[in-house]
Protein backbone atom coordinates (compact mmCIF):
# COMPACT_ATOMS: atom_id res chain seq x y z
CA UNK A 1 0.00 0.00 0.00
CA UNK A 2 1.31 3.43 -0.92
CA UNK A 3 0.76 6.47 1.19
CA UNK A 4 1.73 10.10 0.87
CA UNK A 5 2.29 12.36 3.86
CA UNK A 6 2.30 16.11 3.28
CA UNK A 7 3.81 18.30 5.96
CA UNK A 8 3.22 22.04 5.84
CA UNK A 9 3.99 24.96 8.14
CA UNK A 10 1.14 26.12 10.31
CA UNK A 11 -0.50 29.43 9.53
CA UNK A 12 1.29 32.25 11.25
CA UNK A 13 4.66 30.49 11.26
CA UNK A 14 7.16 32.56 9.31
CA UNK A 15 8.51 30.67 6.29
CA UNK A 16 11.66 32.47 5.12
CA UNK A 17 12.34 29.79 2.48
CA UNK A 18 8.87 30.17 1.01
CA UNK A 19 9.37 33.95 1.01
CA UNK A 20 12.66 33.59 -0.87
CA UNK A 21 11.03 31.30 -3.44
CA UNK A 22 8.15 33.75 -3.78
CA UNK A 23 10.66 36.53 -4.49
CA UNK A 24 12.52 34.40 -7.04
CA UNK A 25 9.28 33.54 -8.86
CA UNK A 26 8.48 37.24 -9.02
CA UNK A 27 11.96 37.82 -10.42
CA UNK A 28 11.25 35.27 -13.18
CA UNK A 29 8.28 37.33 -14.26
CA UNK A 30 5.49 35.40 -12.54
CA UNK A 31 3.71 38.55 -11.51
CA UNK A 32 0.56 36.88 -10.18
CA UNK A 33 2.23 34.94 -7.34
CA UNK A 34 0.52 36.08 -4.13
CA UNK A 35 2.54 33.93 -1.74
CA UNK A 36 4.48 30.65 -1.51
CA UNK A 37 4.71 28.31 1.47
CA UNK A 38 7.25 25.48 1.36
CA UNK A 39 6.46 22.01 2.72
CA UNK A 40 7.62 18.41 2.58
CA UNK A 41 6.27 15.25 0.96
CA UNK A 42 6.98 11.71 2.21
CA UNK A 43 6.04 8.71 0.06
CA UNK A 44 5.73 5.75 2.39
CA UNK A 45 5.21 2.18 1.26
CA UNK A 46 3.47 -0.06 3.77
CA UNK A 47 3.27 -3.83 3.68
CA UNK A 48 -0.18 -4.10 5.30
CA UNK A 49 -3.51 -4.02 3.46
CA UNK A 50 -5.83 -2.54 6.10
CA UNK A 51 -6.30 1.11 5.19
CA UNK A 52 -7.74 2.20 8.52
CA UNK A 53 -4.85 0.60 10.41
CA UNK A 54 -2.39 2.19 8.00
CA UNK A 55 -3.92 5.63 8.54
CA UNK A 56 -3.70 5.24 12.30
CA UNK A 57 -0.07 4.13 12.01
CA UNK A 58 0.82 7.00 9.70
CA UNK A 59 -0.74 9.45 12.16
CA UNK A 60 1.55 8.06 14.84
CA UNK A 61 4.52 8.42 12.47
CA UNK A 62 3.60 12.07 11.91
CA UNK A 63 3.11 12.79 15.60
CA UNK A 64 6.34 11.05 16.62
CA UNK A 65 8.71 12.01 13.83
CA UNK A 66 7.59 13.19 10.40
CA UNK A 67 6.10 16.48 11.60
CA UNK A 68 7.03 18.83 14.41
CA UNK A 69 3.54 19.71 15.56
CA UNK A 70 4.80 22.87 17.28
CA UNK A 71 5.22 24.43 13.83
CA UNK A 72 3.82 21.98 11.27
CA UNK A 73 0.54 20.41 10.16
CA UNK A 74 0.31 17.10 8.31
CA UNK A 75 -2.09 15.46 5.88
CA UNK A 76 -2.19 11.77 4.97
CA UNK A 77 -3.28 10.36 1.62
CA UNK A 78 -3.57 6.63 1.04
CA UNK A 79 -3.66 5.41 -2.56
CA UNK B 1 31.22 18.17 39.41
CA UNK B 2 30.63 15.07 37.30
CA UNK B 3 29.55 15.61 33.72
CA UNK B 4 28.68 13.62 30.60
CA UNK B 5 28.45 14.61 26.94
CA UNK B 6 26.18 12.74 24.53
CA UNK B 7 27.71 12.18 21.10
CA UNK B 8 25.65 11.60 17.95
CA UNK B 9 26.73 10.84 14.39
CA UNK B 10 27.49 14.32 13.09
CA UNK B 11 28.22 16.00 16.44
CA UNK B 12 31.23 18.25 15.92
CA UNK B 13 31.40 20.54 18.96
CA UNK B 14 31.65 17.64 21.39
CA UNK B 15 35.43 17.97 21.77
CA UNK B 16 35.18 21.70 22.45
CA UNK B 17 32.64 20.84 25.14
CA UNK B 18 34.84 18.09 26.66
CA UNK B 19 37.70 20.56 26.79
CA UNK B 20 35.65 23.34 28.38
CA UNK B 21 34.12 21.03 30.98
CA UNK B 22 37.46 19.48 31.89
CA UNK B 23 39.16 22.86 32.10
CA UNK B 24 36.50 24.38 34.33
CA UNK B 25 35.42 21.41 36.47
CA UNK B 26 38.84 19.74 36.68
CA UNK B 27 37.26 16.40 35.84
CA UNK B 28 37.16 14.71 32.44
CA UNK B 29 33.55 14.37 31.24
CA UNK B 30 32.23 10.98 30.27
CA UNK B 31 31.41 10.46 26.62
CA UNK B 32 28.12 8.71 25.93
CA UNK B 33 27.32 7.34 22.47
CA UNK B 34 23.73 7.91 21.31
CA UNK B 35 22.91 4.18 21.04
CA UNK B 36 23.54 3.58 24.74
CA UNK B 37 20.53 3.15 26.97
CA UNK B 38 21.69 4.67 30.26
CA UNK B 39 23.56 7.79 31.22
CA UNK B 40 26.13 7.65 34.00
CA UNK B 41 25.29 9.18 37.37
CA UNK B 42 26.41 12.79 36.82
CA UNK B 43 25.47 16.34 37.85
CA UNK B 44 25.28 17.69 34.31
CA UNK B 45 24.52 16.15 30.92
CA UNK B 46 25.47 18.16 27.84
CA UNK B 47 24.02 17.76 24.37
CA UNK B 48 26.69 19.39 22.19
CA UNK B 49 26.59 21.26 18.91
CA UNK B 50 27.06 19.89 15.43
CA UNK B 51 24.97 18.53 12.60
CA UNK B 52 23.56 15.30 13.98
CA UNK B 53 22.31 13.13 11.11
CA UNK B 54 23.25 15.88 8.67
CA UNK B 55 20.24 17.94 9.84
CA UNK B 56 18.07 15.51 7.85
CA UNK B 57 14.29 15.92 8.21
CA UNK B 58 14.66 18.85 10.69
CA UNK B 59 17.72 19.88 12.68
CA UNK B 60 17.91 17.62 15.73
CA UNK B 61 14.82 15.60 14.77
CA UNK B 62 16.46 12.22 14.28
CA UNK B 63 18.89 12.57 17.20
CA UNK B 64 15.93 13.40 19.44
CA UNK B 65 14.61 9.88 18.77
CA UNK B 66 17.90 8.15 19.71
CA UNK B 67 17.89 5.37 22.33
CA UNK B 68 19.80 7.48 24.89
CA UNK B 69 17.10 10.18 24.84
CA UNK B 70 14.76 8.05 26.92
CA UNK B 71 17.17 8.14 29.83
CA UNK B 72 17.96 11.80 29.20
CA UNK B 73 14.25 12.62 29.60
CA UNK B 74 14.13 10.51 32.78
CA UNK B 75 17.23 12.25 34.19
CA UNK B 76 15.83 15.68 33.31
CA UNK B 77 12.54 14.78 35.01
CA UNK B 78 14.47 13.77 38.13
CA UNK B 79 16.14 17.19 38.25
CA UNK B 80 19.60 16.54 36.75
CA UNK B 81 21.00 19.61 34.94
CA UNK B 82 20.89 19.33 31.14
CA UNK B 83 22.58 21.81 28.80
CA UNK B 84 21.98 21.82 25.04
CA UNK B 85 24.11 24.07 22.87
CA UNK B 86 23.27 24.85 19.24
CA UNK B 87 22.31 21.48 17.72
CA UNK B 88 21.88 20.39 21.33
CA UNK B 89 19.21 23.09 21.77
CA UNK B 90 17.50 21.88 18.59
CA UNK B 91 17.59 18.29 19.88
CA UNK B 92 16.10 19.29 23.26
CA UNK B 93 13.19 21.13 21.60
CA UNK B 94 12.59 18.22 19.21
CA UNK B 95 12.60 15.86 22.20
CA UNK B 96 9.98 17.99 23.95
CA UNK B 97 12.32 18.84 26.86
CA UNK B 98 12.10 22.52 25.94
CA UNK B 99 9.17 24.46 24.46
CA UNK B 100 9.14 25.92 20.94
CA UNK B 101 11.16 25.12 17.84
CA UNK B 102 14.26 26.37 16.03
CA UNK B 103 13.57 27.26 12.44
CA UNK B 104 15.65 28.34 9.45
CA UNK B 105 17.42 31.68 10.10
CA UNK B 106 15.27 34.58 8.90
CA UNK B 107 18.08 35.74 6.61
CA UNK B 108 18.40 32.18 5.21
CA UNK B 109 22.17 32.23 5.60
CA UNK B 110 24.43 30.26 7.93
CA UNK B 111 25.72 32.74 10.50
CA UNK B 112 29.17 32.29 12.02
CA UNK B 113 30.08 35.36 14.04
CA UNK B 114 30.15 36.90 17.48
CA UNK B 115 26.97 38.26 19.03
CA UNK B 116 26.13 40.08 22.24
CA UNK B 117 24.07 38.31 24.86
CA UNK B 118 22.14 39.77 27.74
CA UNK B 119 21.58 37.63 30.81
CA UNK B 120 18.00 38.43 31.77
CA UNK B 121 17.49 35.82 34.48
CA UNK B 122 20.26 35.08 36.95
CA UNK B 123 18.10 32.90 39.20
CA UNK B 124 19.03 29.67 37.39
CA UNK B 125 21.83 27.19 37.97
CA UNK B 126 23.18 28.14 34.52
CA UNK B 127 23.37 31.89 35.09
CA UNK B 128 23.89 32.64 38.80
CA UNK B 129 27.42 34.00 38.28
CA UNK B 130 26.24 36.65 35.82
CA UNK B 131 24.97 40.07 36.86
CA UNK B 132 21.34 40.67 35.92
CA UNK B 133 21.37 42.59 32.64
CA UNK B 134 25.03 41.74 32.03
CA UNK B 135 25.92 41.95 28.35
CA UNK B 136 28.61 39.53 27.17
CA UNK B 137 30.13 38.32 23.95
CA UNK B 138 29.51 34.87 22.54
CA UNK B 139 30.12 33.17 19.19
CA UNK B 140 27.28 31.67 17.14
CA UNK B 141 27.48 29.22 14.23
CA UNK B 142 24.17 27.95 12.93
CA UNK B 143 21.66 27.84 10.10
CA UNK B 144 18.55 26.96 12.11
CA UNK B 145 18.53 29.16 15.19
CA UNK B 146 15.36 31.15 14.65
CA UNK B 147 13.45 30.55 17.88
CA UNK B 148 9.70 30.19 17.41
CA UNK B 149 6.90 29.45 19.84
CA UNK B 150 3.18 30.16 19.53
CA UNK B 151 1.89 33.28 21.29
CA UNK B 152 0.60 31.40 24.37
CA UNK B 153 3.84 29.48 24.86
CA UNK B 154 5.89 32.62 24.37
CA UNK B 155 3.88 34.48 26.99
CA UNK B 156 4.18 31.55 29.36
CA UNK B 157 7.98 31.26 29.09
CA UNK B 158 8.38 35.03 29.41
CA UNK B 159 6.10 35.18 32.47
CA UNK B 160 7.86 32.22 34.11
CA UNK B 161 11.31 33.74 33.65
CA UNK B 162 12.34 30.87 31.38
CA UNK B 163 14.09 33.24 28.99
CA UNK B 164 17.63 33.36 30.40
CA UNK B 165 19.62 34.89 27.52
CA UNK B 166 18.61 37.37 24.81
CA UNK B 167 20.60 38.69 21.88
CA UNK B 168 21.53 42.26 22.77
CA UNK B 169 22.54 45.45 20.99
CA UNK B 170 20.73 44.57 17.77
CA UNK B 171 22.84 41.44 17.20
CA UNK B 172 19.95 38.96 16.85
CA UNK B 173 21.49 36.86 14.05
CA UNK B 174 18.52 34.70 13.10
CA UNK B 175 15.16 36.40 13.64
CA UNK B 176 14.39 34.69 16.96
CA UNK B 177 11.18 35.93 18.57
CA UNK B 178 11.80 38.36 21.45
CA UNK B 179 15.56 38.08 20.69
CA UNK B 180 15.55 34.74 22.51
CA UNK B 181 18.99 33.10 22.62
CA UNK B 182 18.54 30.67 25.50
CA UNK B 183 15.63 29.27 27.52
CA UNK B 184 15.02 26.80 30.30
CA UNK B 185 12.19 24.35 30.92
CA UNK B 186 9.55 25.31 33.50
CA UNK B 187 11.52 23.60 36.28
CA UNK B 188 14.71 25.44 35.35
CA UNK B 189 17.04 22.42 35.19
CA UNK B 190 17.21 22.14 31.38
CA UNK B 191 18.74 24.98 29.35
CA UNK B 192 19.05 25.26 25.58
CA UNK B 193 20.95 28.03 23.81
CA UNK B 194 22.12 28.63 20.26
CA UNK B 195 25.43 30.47 21.03
CA UNK B 196 28.56 28.57 22.04
CA UNK B 197 29.82 29.56 25.51
CA UNK B 198 32.33 26.66 25.34
CA UNK B 199 34.18 28.59 22.64
CA UNK B 200 34.99 31.64 24.77
CA UNK B 201 36.67 30.30 27.89
CA UNK B 202 40.42 30.81 27.42
CA UNK B 203 42.59 33.79 26.46
CA UNK B 204 43.45 32.00 23.20
CA UNK B 205 39.74 32.17 22.29
CA UNK B 206 39.91 35.95 22.55
CA UNK B 207 37.90 36.20 25.74
CA UNK B 208 36.55 34.47 28.81
CA UNK B 209 32.91 35.54 28.63
CA UNK B 210 31.58 31.99 28.29
CA UNK B 211 33.16 30.84 31.53
CA UNK B 212 30.48 32.33 33.77
CA UNK B 213 27.93 29.82 32.53
CA UNK B 214 30.11 26.84 33.43
CA UNK B 215 31.17 28.46 36.71
CA UNK B 216 27.50 28.92 37.60
CA UNK B 217 26.93 25.21 37.04
CA UNK B 218 30.00 24.34 39.06
CA UNK B 219 28.79 26.43 41.96
CA UNK B 220 25.31 24.87 41.80
CA UNK B 221 26.60 21.27 41.76
TrEMBL record, chain B:
| Location(s), subcellular | Cytoplasm
Q: Name one GO molecular function term.
A: glutaminase activity
Matching InterPro entries: Class_I_gatase-like, PRibForGlyAmidine_synth_PurQ
Mind listing the UniProt keywords for this protein, alphabetically? ATP-binding, Cytoplasm, Glutamine amidotransferase, Hydrolase, Ligase, Nucleotide-binding, Purine biosynthesis
- Residues forming the catalytic site: 86 (nucleophile), 196, 198
Q: Which SMART domains match?
A: GATase_5
Q: What is its EC number?
A: 6.3.5.3, 3.5.1.2
Summarizing the function annotation, the protein's role is: Part of the phosphoribosylformylglycinamidine synthase complex involved in the purines biosynthetic pathway. Catalyzes the ATP-dependent conversion of formylglycinamide ribonucleotide (FGAR) and glutamine to yield formylglycinamidine ribonucleotide (FGAM) and glutamate. The FGAM synthase complex is composed of three subunits. PurQ produces an ammonia molecule by converting glutamine to glutamate. PurL transfers the ammonia molecule to FGAR to form FGAM in an ATP-dependent manner.
Quaternary data: Part of the FGAM synthase complex composed of 1 PurL, 1 PurQ and 2 PurS subunits.
Designated name of the protein: Phosphoribosylformylglycinamidine synthase subunit PurQ
Amino acid sequence: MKARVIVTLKNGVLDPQGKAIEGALGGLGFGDVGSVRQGKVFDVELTGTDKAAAKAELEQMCEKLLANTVIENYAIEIA
Amino acid sequence: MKTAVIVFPGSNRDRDMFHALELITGTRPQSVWHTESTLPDVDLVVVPGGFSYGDYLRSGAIAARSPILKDLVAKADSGVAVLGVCNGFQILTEAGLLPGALMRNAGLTFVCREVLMETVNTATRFSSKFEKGQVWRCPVAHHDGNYFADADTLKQIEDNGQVVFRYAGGTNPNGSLNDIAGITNAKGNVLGMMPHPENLIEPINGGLDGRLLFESLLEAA
